[in-house]
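fyi for ur records
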Amino acid sequence: MLTIEKVKRAQAVLADAIYKTDVIFANKLSADCEVYLKTENLQKTGSFKIRGAYNKIASLSPEEKAKGVIACSAGNHAQGVALAAAKNGIFSLICLPDGAPISKVEATRAYGADERAIELQKERGYTFIHPFDDEEVIAGQGTIGLEILSQMIDVDAIVVPVGGGGLVAGVAFAVKSVNPRVQVYGVQAEGAPSMANSLREKKVCALPSVSTIADGIAVKQPSTHTFDYCEKYVDGIVTVSDDEIATAILTLIEKQKMIAEGAGATPVAAILAGKLPQLKGKKVCCVVSGGNIDVTILSRVIQRGLLTSGRQCTLNIELLDKPGQLVAVSGIIAACGANVTGVHHEHANAGSAVIGCFLRIDIETRDFAHIAQIKQELSQHGFKLC
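which gave:
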């Protein structure tokens, strides 16, 4: 059974093994509430997962440590187990599922883990380190809650990413045990709402599949333990779309100079998208749980974030194919303060004028209001937008 003493003991165990990550004020993220960021993306291994993994491994008996440990994870838990095992001088095997981001696979190898089949657990007697369904793991994650309370004595609410529920269960339990006044909210991806569904149905529910850019919280089913803790201690769980997550990642890069992976950006996504209106006027701490995002995925996410926030736009214009048309269009766009980044010209189709053509222009803009202004100016000058 989880107790606050276990969480405090985990805090002592972790004292020399991890960073006590900073809480920073993010004054540019919301006009509705005071947003602070708990920067677990700057934790060792780039994720909070080292906390639970290290606390669990440190609790093993000498006999269990001698046999080694095994884990299965898409990346962050794997890296946490690998580093924790290395620091404790024990052997670790990590099974990464097909489709795990290459950057996380390589980072796990770098921390000293071998990648093998999970059948070896029974064959060789390894201890399985579960990513969330374990009291010692949950206690380790709960140390984040204790740190936030010590760093923000007047915090009103804490917003936490949710996958299998180990992080939010630990944080909520620790926070409510020390200061029941503080609210704790969870955020899941719309494509993986296993805990949100379970709480709504009042029982553990499994998803047939998950699909989200937030691979760190793409969990089909929470555990009975994490469900019970969430039902008792968490004040609510909301979901955010992949577009909202992409916008949050981009916003953190631009306004806070901070890299967050999809899972880590979900609390900020919930704030930006207005999913937690009850926090208006409150001091809110968002747990940025990790920063291990593959650079190829990051480039796609930035592109998507630019589109969904009105920072980029493609205009399709039907016009007559005669000299001066492109100059006129680009002149209007320039006068509106936008920047042309791409131009594609093609002849009209069978349903258009013989001398007609289509112009597709990619532009950089400020926001959707700016796009609307440009379209209005083009229309007023006689250009037909498709």
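The chain has a mean pLDDT of 91. thats all i got for now
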